[in-house]
Amino acid sequence: MLTQEDDVDAHAFRRQGWTISAIARHLGHDRKTIRAYLNGGRVAGVRARTADDPLGPFVGYLRQRLADDPHVWASALFDEAARLGFDRSYPTFTRGLRAHRLRPHCEPCSSSAGRDHAVIDHPPGEEVQWDWLELPDPPAHWQRCAGAHLLVGALPHSGRWRAVLADSEDLAHLVEALHAVSGRLGGLPKTWRFDRMATVASPNTGRVNAAFAAVAKHYGVHVSLCPPRHGNRKGTVEKANHSAAQRWWRTVPDDATVAQAQASLDAFCARVGDRRARQRDGERSTVGALADAELLAPLPPPFPATVTVSRVVSAQALVAFAGNSYSVPPGLAGSTLTVSHRLGEYTLDIATASGTVLARHRREPDGAGVLVRDTLHVTALETAVLAAFSTGKPCHRKARRPPSPAALAHAEQLRGSSNPERDRAVVVDLDRWARAARTRQVAP
What we know:
By secondary structure, the protein is α+β, with helices and mostly antiparallel strands. It folds into four domains: 4-38; 56-100, no CATH class; 127-293, 2-Layer Sandwich (Nucleotidyltransferase, domain 5); 306-387, CATH 2.40.50. 35% of the residues lie in helices and 16% in strands. The chain has 15 helices and 14 strands. The protein has helices at residues 4-15, 20-27, 31-38, 59-68, 74-83, 90-100, 171-185, 210-219, 235-248, 258-271, 287-293, 375-387, 405-415, 420-423, 430-438; strands spanning 127-135, 148-154, 161-166, 191-194, 222-225, 277-280, 283-286, 306-312, 318-321, 324-327, 336-342, 347-351, 357-362, 371-372. The chain has a five-stranded mixed β-sheet with strand order 3-2-1-4-5, with helices on both faces. A hairpin with a 4-residue loop joins strand 11 (336-342) and strand 12 (347-351). Helix 2 (20-27) crosses helix 3. The termini are far apart.
C-alpha cells in the first residue's frame, strides 16, 4: 500500500518521464503496485483486500430476497445464507450487506430519508404550524400523572414560536390554547397547518371535522393538513418541539406551579427564541425582527367553547383552577368536582358529577394567585368548623385502662366458658342403660 506522500511522488516522477521500474526502485515497491496506483486502480491509504469477498457468491440470492421483502431481518438472512454455505460470522455478513447496498429504500417507511429535499417557500404571514407536545414526568403537585400537554405554534417564515400548557388535548382545550398562542404570536395568519390530529380532522380520510370547521370559520383561517407520515412538512414546529423539550422542559423545577412554568416558557421564547440570528437577502437579522415585520390579522374574541376539568376539593373547601382558588360549600373535602368555563365569558361554574351547580364565581386572570370566596360559603364553613369545635381536654395517651367487666364478660362468651349446654349437670340413668343392654343380648 502506498501512502499519500508516495502516491504524490509516483505521479510526479511519472510526469517527469520516469519509467515505472525506476519509480518502483526509488520508492521501494513492486512495479505492479506502482502501475496500479498510476492507472487509478488503487487508492492511496486504502489497503487492498487480499482475500475474496465472502459474500460475493450470495449477493444474487440476497438481493432477490430483499427485493421480495425489504424488511426481512438480517439475522434471518444470515440463517438462510448459513444453510446455503456461508461460513463467516454475523458481523462479516452485515458488513457485506452494507458494502453491497443490498437493502432497498422503502418509501412508505422512510419517506424523507435517502433522497433530496425541496426548499419550501414560506411567505410572511402565510401560515402557522401547530402541534401537540406531550411532556413526561410533570411535577407531582400538578396532578397530571399522564403527562403535561403543550400546544406549540410556529411562524415558518421567521421561526418565531410560542406555546401554552393545557390540561387536556380535547377540542375545548385546543381552542383555548389556539387563541392563547395566537395572541402571543401577534395575530392570525392566512392558514393554520396541522398534522392529522383527531380533534381537527379524521386521521383516516383527512377531512376536517364539523366541530373544528366552526372554529376555523370563527377565526377566518384556512385549514391545511400535512400528508400522512410527513412530519418534515411542518418542520418549523417540529424543531420548536425539540427546543421546548430539551432546553426548557428539562430545567423546570419540581416546586414550580403551572402558572410559573408558563411564565418561564414565555420568557424563554422571548429571551432565547426571538434572539436567534437569521439572514434574509444578504442582511443579518433576528427571529424577533422578522416576526415583527409579518402582517398578521387581528385576533377576534375567543370561540365560545366550554372548557371542563376535574378538581379535588381541599380541606378549606377550595377548588384550584388556572392558578387561582375558588370556594365551594363545606362538607365536600376530598370529593371530585367539575369546573367549567365558557371562553369569552367572565364566570366559571363548579358542579358535581351529576351536573348540579354548587358555585358560580367571577373568573380571575390566570396565574394571579387570587383566593375567591363567596360570603355564604365563608359563613357556612365557619359554622361547620365551630360546631365541630370542642374545648374539652384531650385524652391522656399514656393512661392505664385494662379491660372492663363488661368486656371480660364478652370475652368469656367468645371463649365458650359461659355456654349453657356445657354448664348443664350430666345425669346418668342406669336403668335406661340396662334396658338397652338386654335388647342386645344374643341367645347361645
